[in-house]
């Protein structure tokens, strides 16, 4: 049984045309024979576009939820490890105001940062050599 995207009626697979170019695993169309016969080619094309957009949106939401659950577990562990403060300056903030610092080259989270420290990391491209140069600059006596 398969549900037609247009009429939303569940029908046997025999009611659907074989579609070798279909992206679905069963290689069947998304419209039952009745809907397929009664719709213009333009209407069919619009429905197919709507079907694939809906599928992609649903897939994106599922992926985001999966990432979010992993992120929140990781964030909770770091929150406890850092006693609720920024890993760099130690400013104590609630979880929602701390950013998960994940260097792009590594992919694994290093810690939670406040907004200012997160901006500094981003501005200096997570490059320790640039941080050392910045520290040396700040330590120079003023003229």
Output the keywords.
143 residues, alpha+beta, His-Me finger endonuclease fold, 2 domains, two-stranded antiparallel sheet, two-stranded antiparallel ribbon, 4 helices, 6 strands, 48% helix, elongated
Descriptive notes:
The chain has 143 residues and is of the alpha+beta class. The protein folds into two domains: 1-57, no CATH class; 82-143, 3-Layer(aba) Sandwich (His-Me finger endonuclease fold), CATH 3.40.1800.10. The chain contains four helices and six strands. The chain has helices at 33-38, 41-81, 115-123, 128-139, and strands at residues 2-3, 10-11, 16-18, 28-32, 99-101, 111-113. Strands 1-2 form a two-stranded antiparallel ribbon. A two-stranded antiparallel sheet has the order 3-4. The protein is elongated.
Note the topology.
Layout: E1 2-3, E2 10-11, E3 16-18, E4 28-32, H1 33-38, H2 41-81, E5 99-101, E6 111-113, H3 115-123, H4 128-139
Antiparallel strand pairs: 1-2, 3-4, 5-6
The succession of helices and strands, N to C, reads EEEEHHEEHH
CATH architecture of the largest domain: 3-Layer(aba) Sandwich
Strand order of the largest sheet: 1-2
The number of helical runs is 4
Tell me the strand percentage band: 5-15%
Summarize the biggest pleated sheet. Answer: 2 strands, antiparallel
How many beta-strand elements? 6
Q: Could you name the CATH class of the largest domain?
A: Alpha Beta
SSE-based structural type: alpha+beta
Sum up the overall morphology in one term: elongated
Instruction: List the uncertain runs.
Output: none
Mean pLDDT: 84
The CATH topology of the largest domain is His-Me finger endonuclease fold
Helix content: 40-55%
Query: How many structurally independent domains?
Result: 2
Task: Please report the distance between the alpha carbons of the first and last residues.
Answer: 81 Å
**What's the CATH H-level superfamily name of the largest domain?**
His-Me finger endonucleases
């Amino acid at each position: 049984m398969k549900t037609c995207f247009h009429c939303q009626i569940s029908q046997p697979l025999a009611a659907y045309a074989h579609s070798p170019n279909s992206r679905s695993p069963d290689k069947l169309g998304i419209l039952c024979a009745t809907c397929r016969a009664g719709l213009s080619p333009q209407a069919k094309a619009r429905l197919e576009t709507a079907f694939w957009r809906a599928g992609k949106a649903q897939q994106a939401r599922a992926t985001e939820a999966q990432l979010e659950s992993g992120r929140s577990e990781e964030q909770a562990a770091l929150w406890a490890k850092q006693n609720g403060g920024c890993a760099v300056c130690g400013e104590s903030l609630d979880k929602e105001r701390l950013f998960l610092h994940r260097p792009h080259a590594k992919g694994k989270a290093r810690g939670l940062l406040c907004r200012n420290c997160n901006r500094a990391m981003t501005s200096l491209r997570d490059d320790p050599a640039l941080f050392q140069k910045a520290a040396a600059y700040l330590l120079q006596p003023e003229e």
